[in-house]
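== Polypeptide entry ==
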Amino acid sequence: MSRSEQRRRLALRWWGLLTLALAPLFVLNLVFGGARQPGPLAMPLFIAGLLAMFASLPLFRAYKRALVATEKALDTPQEPAAWQALGECRGRAMLVAALPAWVAAVALFAGLEGIPLLLLALSSLVLFYLYRIPRQLG
């Protein structure tokens, strides 16, 4: 596979995982959203969603190491394996980066209000933005 094909494959996977991360919150909000009274679990779930952002820190470090290894492997026989390792590392990290949005989807049933739901979804979106492949790597 050429470098541009690898980048295209990783870009499509990025969009797919972003959809997987945010779709449950938006679909559940459309179906079950509405004026609800905040329950006793709303605030603990919001805090859990915020803390879930920090679960991605070790995986982000591993992703950065995989980026550096892929850059070093460019134009060598190890390049396809480096792209594969980068994709696997990034996929795991992006699933963990989706945790705040998934916690927000669960917190919807606890009556968490709109602004905290939006903040948790945006935190996942920002974390996903960090996992874009830099242009220099192509």
The chain has a mean pLDDT of 91. Residues 3-32+56-133 form one domain. The chain has one domain: 3-32+56-133.
